[in-house]
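Fold it.
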Amino acid sequence: MKSKRKHIILILSALLIVLLIVGGILAVQKFHLFGNPAEQKKQVLKAYMTAIEKNDYEKMWSLLSKDSQKQVSKEDFISRNQNIYEGIGTTKVTISELSLADDEDVLSYHTTLLTSANEIAFDNQVDLVKEDNDYKIKWTDSLIFPELTADDKVQIAAEEAPRGDIRDRNGALLATQGEVSEVGFVPGKMNKDNKEGMQKVADLLEIPVTSIEDKLSASWVNDDSFVPIKKIKKYQGDYEHALASGDADALFHQQLLEVPGVLINTVTERIYPLGESAALLTGYVQKVTAEDLEKHAGEGYGQNSYIGKSGLEYLYEEQLKGEDGCKIWIANKDGDEKQVLASKLIVPAESITTTIDANLQRQIYNSFASDKAASVAMNPYTGEVLALVSTPSYDVNLMVLGLSEAKWNALNDDPNKPMFNRFRATWVPGSTMKPITGAIGVNSGKLDPGADLGHSGLSWQKDSSWGNFSITTLVEYSGAASLSNGLIFSDNIYFAKAAMQIGKDDFTKGLDNLGFDKELDFPIKMETSSYGILSTETDLANSGYGQAQMLVNPLHMATIYSAFLNSGIMVKPVLDSSQKQSQPWLENAFSPEVAELIKSNLANVISENSSAVINTHGATFAGKTGTAEIKTSQSDTSGTELGWFNIFTIDRDHTNALLMVSMVEDVKDRGGSSYVVNKTDKVLANYMQ
């Protein structure tokens, strides 16, 4: 028992010794950290520099000595530091190589500031004095920069990198820096009672009058200042002649200039020469928001930067924006340059040359401008996308100049949805699906193109298991119900039977092989084509002629049709002219023999089907029309229709080789797909010359 008690005492004694040793070590460390003047001074300087990085100027002030606080007021101190550090865009502060002089009154260190003009690095030193058991900083302006005095200013000048151009294949401008007008007031030339004038300008520009009042009351404004109010489109042409002829734009400018004190200057701004014709393709830029600056921190954007918001402007933002140049320097009280602290050379933006043909883009837009439509044009052999058009549209220039709230609401509330990008969406393909169904069937070996699937009149159902449901078609014809006649006469019943003969597994396998439910390999993200769930026989039958749940994107449709011209290879669509062209997107979509068969049959469609006949325009064409029914049930008579026309030149060496896919909404009672054929014919008449 005594032995056990003795053993416990020995253990407790050992633990006590360990605790004493640990306590001694901690006490020594605490002394070095809190009792060591050198460490205390370093900690104070580190806290001060950390506060700079956090923009915590109150904290910085609290670390100054009492004498320093008497020399400079808190308000002046905060203003001076904030203006300099935030003015030069300081985002990171690093100090290193801290060391004390022999007399331990002066702490030396190396500073690195990350700013708008890259890094500013310098050696510096600071005096610290002990007050009430704490060390405080003896502050002077030289703590900011060694050469800075109280009379000096830190200046920054940015050189804006002009945004790169977006061009078409021939060098025509789709987006560039151009001239616009800027409406403003010169206060000294305004009437004494200027409220009426300001209200008139506010009404004309569709802005609140308070926004004009706020700008005129800014601290920098004097009688001779030009105070910008709003940018508007620059009037092009003979102004005097336009006024005499009653031109609306010229009259608008005249009404503004009639207000005393109004001046209209010419300034540079992003412009879009094609306007509405390419608005949903080019997209637009706008001034960065706080959210943009946060998202793109460290990428060279400033408060006045512009950034691509949609379309090609957004897609190629990195190349188009370039990098602004910047210079930071110390200027003496006379404004002379005393010392350059940092400079960054401008990095010119790149210009983008696209495969787009501006003339074709404009021609297609003009033809379909009054419709809710989408059109895609491409060279089917190279994959070069020549046009991407969505109508109706809007003047994209107004997005940069600034839309009034009323106009913005009008655009968003317009039932025709001018801001909805239809060429990116998917649509029920109707009969334009029939060549694809035929190609899948023949390619799979399940459909004999010459076989007669039998005539069934204008209405057919497999058997009574379909109940009241039946497949209908519009035209009865003589001769075999074969693939060729099925395409020429657009026989819904033939392709319903063909889909059922192919079978669900081979039909869906064929669609998958064509890129359905797969993202299209293209810079602009398109909605993915899909065929839904073919859960019943009628789903399969309807899908065979492009109904049921079948949805196809127009550009994807064009790439599928390109396989008929490229021995069964679907060409990869290309938008950037610098990219390699004539690349396959999906190989072995069909065999070369099947592709040739469908191509020759589609040539017969154009030459023999009266609803698809167009002028030759010096070329040989092939193609297919389609009318898709949009209704809730077979008995629904109030539904609408989509009209399609897919057409392509057969001659590979034709100067204007073209594959064009167009879809128009609401063609019911307007001629169906024939309406789209007529619109397309007008485009071809101009383009194929």
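The radius of gyration is 37 Å.
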